[in-house]
Design goal:
The radius of gyration is 19 Å and the shape is elongated. It folds into 2 domains: 145 residues, Sandwich (Jelly Rolls), CATH 2.60.120.10; 73 residues, Orthogonal Bundle (Arc Repressor Mutant, subunit A). The protein has a 4-stranded antiparallel sheet. Strands 2-7-4-5 form a 4-stranded antiparallel sheet. The protein has a 3-stranded antiparallel sheet with strand order 9-11-10. It contains 8 helices and 11 strands. By secondary structure, it is of the alpha+beta class. A hairpin with a 2-residue loop joins strand 10 and strand 11. Helix 3 crosses helix 4 and helix 6 crosses helix 7. Keywords: DNA-binding, Transcription, Transcription regulation. This is Crp/Fnr family transcriptional regulator.
């Protein structure tokens, strides 16, 4: 796999770099394969660097001391994660976790070169600001859901998103994994899923569930 071709395709500022800058960017980028469930970055990590998803899927989430988690956003093919490189920028820190949800391939760009290029090239800085703005919008959406929407609505919305993501009505999810995504407890999630099952909205079996009535689920997600 040619790193130059990938970087040129995904980074809009690549062609504005000098030959020396582009060569340094390539040399300070590495291809890494991650197994499913691998923690790529957490609050105790050294500066991981800018991550670009080549294939697979990553989950960015925060966790509480109690162990409860909430997903902030996913990274799919060609998505870029700046939060894993935030330690390169002065006075910016994020205690986030980054996990591979599937077997994934990514390019990691050393934070130091991103920091240097952002100081000398306005297009690099513009790119970083745009990514930050987009991810902030996703995080604000998650916070809005957590604060203003009922758990019934949030679970419904999550199931719909998962169905769209996998293009399937059968979802291979445990109650615990759903709880970790939405920032709730497994017990509460199980109780609500059982209620959905009684209402013939979903069908639950071990390690998976099937959406039976997407219309009812949509109505709940908007309530």
């Amino acid at each position: 796999m040619d790193k130059k071709e990938i970087l040129e395709e995904i980074l809009p500022f690549f062609n504005s770099l000098s030959v020396k800058e582009s060569q340094e960017l390539i040399s300070k980028s590495i291809l890494i394969k991650y197994e499913e469930g691998k923690i790529v970055h957490n609050k105790n990590s050294t500066c991981t660097g800018l991550l670009i998803t080549i294939s697979g899927q990553f989950r960015t989430f925060i966790s509480a001391p109690s162990g409860r988690e909430i997903t902030l956003f996913r990274l799919l093919d060609r998505d870029v994660c700046i939060l894993s490189a935030s330690c390169a920028f002065q006075n910016i820190t994020y205690d986030i976790n980054l996990e591979s949800e599937k077997e994934s391939l990514a390019i990691i760009i050393d934070s130091s070169i991103i920091k240097d290029l952002s100081k000398s090239n306005a297009k690099v800085l513009e790119f970083l600001l745009n990514i930050t703005q987009n991810k902030l919008s996703e995080v604000m959406y998650v916070l809005e859901q957590a604060v203003f929407f009922s758990l019934d609505s949030r679970i419904s919305n999550f199931l719909i998103e998962e169905s769209n993501l996998t293009n399937s009505s059968t979802l291979y999810l445990t109650h615990e994994s759903i709880a970790n995504h939405i920032g709730s407890s497994r017990e509460v999630v199980s109780k609500i899923l059982k209620k959905f099952e009684r209402d013939d909205i979903i069908e639950i079996s071990r390690g998976k569930l099937k959406i039976l009535n997407i219309e009812k689920l949509n109505n709940l997600s908007n309530s």
